[in-house]
Amino acid sequence: MNIEQNLMSSNLRILSANIKNNILTKRCKFSIAKTVDIKEIVKEHKYESGLHNNSNVNLYTSRTHTCDELRSEDCGKSVILCGWLEYVRLNRFIILRDGYGSTQLITPENASTELNDFIKKIPLESVLMCYGKVKLRPVEEINKNQATGMIEVIVDQLLLLNAVDTKLPFQLRKFNKANESLRLKYRYVDLRYPEMQYNLRLRSKLLMKMREFLINHRAFVEVETPTLFKKTHGGAQEFIVPTHEKGKCYSLVQSPQQLKQMLMVGSIDRYFQVAKCYRDEGAKSDRQPEFTQLDIEMSFTNQDAVMLLIEELLSFVWPSELGKIITPFPRLSYEEAMLTYGSDKPDIGCSAKISNWTKYIPKASKEVFSLVLKNSEDKLSKKQINDLKTLISTNYPDVKFSLLNIRLLKTFKENLQKIFNGIDVEAVLADYNISEHDLVAIASGSKYKALSALGKINEHFKIDYSSDARWRFVWIVDFPLFEMDSNQIQSVHHPFTQPQTEITSDNLLEVKGFHYDLVLNGNEVGGGSIRIHDADLQTKVIESILNIPIETMSHLVEALKSGCPPHGGIALGVDRLLSILCNTNSIRDVIAFPKTFEGKDLLSGAPTEITTEDRKRYHLKIDNVEKT
Amino acid sequence: MNIEQNLMSSNLRILSANIKNNILTKRCKFSIAKTVDIKEIVKEHKYESGLHNNSNVNLYTSRTHTCDELRSEDCGKSVILCGWLEYVRLNRFIILRDGYGSTQLITPENASTELNDFIKKIPLESVLMCYGKVKLRPVEEINKNQATGMIEVIVDQLLLLNAVDTKLPFQLRKFNKANESLRLKYRYVDLRYPEMQYNLRLRSKLLMKMREFLINHRAFVEVETPTLFKKTHGGAQEFIVPTHEKGKCYSLVQSPQQLKQMLMVGSIDRYFQVAKCYRDEGAKSDRQPEFTQLDIEMSFTNQDAVMLLIEELLSFVWPSELGKIITPFPRLSYEEAMLTYGSDKPDIGCSAKISNWTKYIPKASKEVFSLVLKNSEDKLSKKQINDLKTLISTNYPDVKFSLLNIRLLKTFKENLQKIFNGIDVEAVLADYNISEHDLVAIASGSKYKALSALGKINEHFKIDYSSDARWRFVWIVDFPLFEMDSNQIQSVHHPFTQPQTEITSDNLLEVKGFHYDLVLNGNEVGGGSIRIHDADLQTKVIESILNIPIETMSHLVEALKSGCPPHGGIALGVDRLLSILCNTNSIRDVIAFPKTFEGKDLLSGAPTEITTEDRKRYHLKIDNVEKT
Any chain A CB within 8 A of the CB of B149? Predict the structure, then answer.
């Protein structure tokens, strides 16, 4: 039985009956009913003619090809295409688009004018099914920018599966023109853009390759851990989930950290999970209340091994069309990174290096650091320079900061002398080869703050880097374990990181941890550590050093006492990594249904008003008077 | 460099320094520090000697083999094993266990008595690392029930990585003795049981094979959809998540139903997701507040095609060691299933068939159905029969029900006459070949209630089935679209199912939907439908028929108007499917960290009391007086 007979024998016939004399009804009440023998149709095309590629992308559907699939060698074949009406030209040429690409349809020479008139009336973006024959385009019609540009399909039957019946918020041919809130509200239309299709399909492929590497090549086990869990003391703000038990709540996990440690205790020694995590961060730009991380943990491992794993993993999954990555990634200690780039997430290829100028200034009371941006005088406008100065003074009020634009060396020398009386200007000029048209940033103050101020400059002022190092990975290691914040000691990362040396009361701020951050092109894309597996040490850190009530962590401490192997792991930020890979402005462009930076879902309107039933069920009253 | 040198040159040397004269410290403050050159150790064993299998299960760790890996051909090799101390015999023989299996270690002939004495003192389940040499066991020591039973490892160095320092709640050698709440509270110990290891590892493998099939073989795209979404009107009770915006809440999705439909509108035409879903079902046994489903949706498809996809998927992923499944699965309409088995999730291989006895009873005012359980008289105790009767009368108070235990045919005839005056007993006996030692269940009342009562009997009374049909799949189709509940019309499944015929005001309860349930061994393991893609029809169903305010669904209706292709899909219950595959009593045994049937996490104690900070942040007061 050929397709034509199939079409006739199936209920597609009933559907096509709606098209009297080839004229389309406004909206054909279409349903692919169970009597359509799709298996037969597909078999013919797939298994018997061997026409399809290996991906089987058309199996289980009523199409024979996607809109990206037909080539000149398909000429003469009868095909069924399904897709969206992107564009009509001269009432005869139809661009049919799906998630894969587009194909040109053309009505037959002898088509009735009524048909052509009707085609004109179909709203753009309506859903069509076309049965027709593939032919070569005339030479002058060939479109080399379209994968199917060599061919077109002569329409034999055209079915309007579903007509657009509303004013669409934006046109699909103008990607950059819609504003983001409109795109988020009508995400189901926005997703049709080739860019969004690419991003979501790449995301799926990348996560699949991660799983193939970890499960098939490295014997890891993916374990789903609960997201409704107990509140973690400290760390990010966690969402709460009230239960019907009065006053009792779950928290949505901010990461599976404790749970994966429990898995190590439980002999699941090579764990990973593509884990959904939650943080109630309020209005922080480019964060999402729910996000995805590739969460990994291993027993009987060490820091080098985890780093090696990640380097091998990323090499394996990196899309070949985006260029190779070079391993091993360079490593910088936290101290080196700060001293060299002023940042613990430096873009090592696109940053100027910081130099210490203290020695040139006889009476310097604080350390003086400088960043020389060669031949950059004309790269920032006066306004941009002022904006940068404001940024620094706001973020680092205690740092003495200057950004000098060298139009004339003479003026520069005078200015420098004004700022640092007695500075050996000639030595500075010679040692750093400073000349006209350079930009020089200088920061003086307490060491890490002055360095960070210059780091901000590096962040906002990326040096042109004409290089093959498109992907600039770097590991940052040897972080301090603790820091002071408002006179309170706290973990730099979290209380579970294994110290590199013994902790005493004297060296709290000096002790380094086995913690490692992964930085890509100046963005933190991952972080992990070797964990404490000794219950006494963990108790000491939680209780004696951090002053966290040990009861809140008793399940973890009890687990460490029950036979816990040495272990460590890492988590990669999937959204951030993809956003860099896809070169998008925001992580929202690699997430199917993201929320705004205020946490709103513009599509559904969530969050919405709590209902009376839910108030009762969860014993909640909403406070009328805000007390804080 | 060989391992020995490696051990000596690395900080394992430092660690082993803790073992003075081969005597172990109580707890060696062990940390695998970054100076251990694990790469080198592993390379020797893996890449150079080619000793490992392909799974690379030891990469990135300090072991050379798992405890399940050594065989007689490994004799003479130097190895490093890591694991848990399961058992000590004669102070010399140590059973070391990890998540893969166990290996016997033995101290050398010339070991000091101090060493042997100390081994005796190591608490069971402590974590050890052993460096030693593989040798064949003496013939009399060979253990054929252990994969490594041909060999043992002579201990050269033994490191106590972490000693158990608490009383363990149960012994690892007695799986069935611990009660479940103890197992859940100490899940990190419970997970070490070989059964739990098998279940979690099978779960990971099965989900990976599903992904391989869908992505690599069937060109699907996995898309993560948000779990913080808008409340769905109707359906299961959804958890709410308060936000800092006063009185505004997200809901945790009960399924990605609406979101996957939006993806279809957005040209992601072959979607799937291993999706976390949430339902606040309170105390329903064997349900979890969060659970996992394999969620699938396709455009341009139909019911047959979705069913074919699932049959191919399950055939592909089914673990070969568990026997084959036979496709295509049989199909029953809802009506047939009810009339034959009294259930819409029948165990078709293990159920007796219902017969209609109405015709034998001259004055029957209601339909009479019967279930004859051949030779089953002795299979239920009097108590079990009474319990069943109580169950039926509680669940179906309007159904007249009898369960007759035929010890004597004469008595049976008399009893039957008492119940149904005028019944043609002889015809019944002949037609159904009833004889002594049979059990006969009879139910009379309104059709579906009477049938369901007998379905309950089938559910509780599985007929022995000695067959190769270990996996009894069946599709249930042609469900009614609507049903009456407390005089209100409602969807049998959900409001998005495509009707098979036009809906009029007269045929509401007759219209069937394109819905399909997948049943395995009497358990519903999946369900799906072809969806409504026409905005007018969807509006009619939501607003006119179901009386749901259309505003709550405006985002969906608007999407249907924006170019929505015909589409349909299905969701498989991953927890339930695995529980059947693993033959566990409960889905909790295939979930790493499940909650009790009251929704409690015994491990962490969640849900816990809401904090004052959270009350303030989310503007919540807890109601003191319960009003309902």
Answer: no
pLDDT in tens, A490-502: 999 999 999 999 9
**pLDDT tens for each residue of A98-111:** 999 999 999 988 88
Mean pLDDT over B217-221 rounds to: 96
Look up residue A250 and give its amino acid: Y
* pLDDT classification of B285: cutoffs 50, 70, 90: low
pLDDT tens digit sequence for A264-302: 999 999 999 999 999 998 656 678 999 999 999 999 999
CA angle A329, A334, A338 (to 5 degrees): 105
Q: Helices A447-460 and A382-395: crossing angle, nearest 10°?
A: 150
CB contact under 8 A, B622 and A247: yes
In this complex, do A607 and B33 lie within 8 Å of one another by their Cβ atoms?
no
Contacting residues of A for B227, CB less than 8 Å apart: 227, 276, 290
Q: Which SS3 state, helix, strand or coil, does residue B431 take?
A: helix
Q: Does B549 touch chain A (CB under 8 A)?
A: no
Sequence-ordered strand ranges (E) for B137-247: 151-162, 221-222, 228-229, 240-242
Shortest distance between the Cα of A449 and any Cα of chain B, in A, equals: 30
The neighbour count for residue B521, using CB atoms within 10 Å, is: 19
Order the strands of the B473-477 sheet from edge to edge. Answer: B221-222, B270-278, B290-299, B567-573, B523-530, B515-520, B473-477, B331-333
What is the predicted ipTM?
0.92
Q: How far apart are CA A260 and CA A268, in angstroms?
A: 9
Tell me the CA distances in angstroms from B362 to A78, B356, B368, B424, B425, one per residue in order. 63, 13, 11, 8, 12
**Quick check: B561 contacting A, CB < 8 Å?**
yes
Q: Looking at the predicted structure, is the pLDDT value of residue A26 above 80? A: no
The pLDDT of residue B505: 87
Q: Which residues contact A466 (CB under 8 A, 6 or more apart)?
A: none
Residues, chain B: 628
Cβ separation of B565 and A161 shorter than 8 Å? Answer: yes
Please tell me if residue B298 touches chain A, with a CB cutoff of 8 Å. yes
Q: Does the global pTM surpass 0.90?
A: yes
Token duo for residue B379: 């299979």
Chain B residues lying within 8 Å of A595, measured CB to CB: 226, 228
User: How far is it, in rounded angstroms, from Cα A95 to Cα A586?
Assistant: 30
Say how many Å lie between the first and final Cα of chain A, rounded. 75
DSSP string, A311-343: HHHHHHHS-GGG----SSPPEEEHHHHHHHHSS
The nearest CA of chain A is from the CA of B624 a distance in Å of 8
Extract the tokens encoding A496: 């579970």
User: A122 in contact with B at a CB cutoff of 8 Å?
Assistant: no
**What are the distances in angstroms from CA B298 to CA A590, A617, B462, B512?**
21, 37, 37, 21
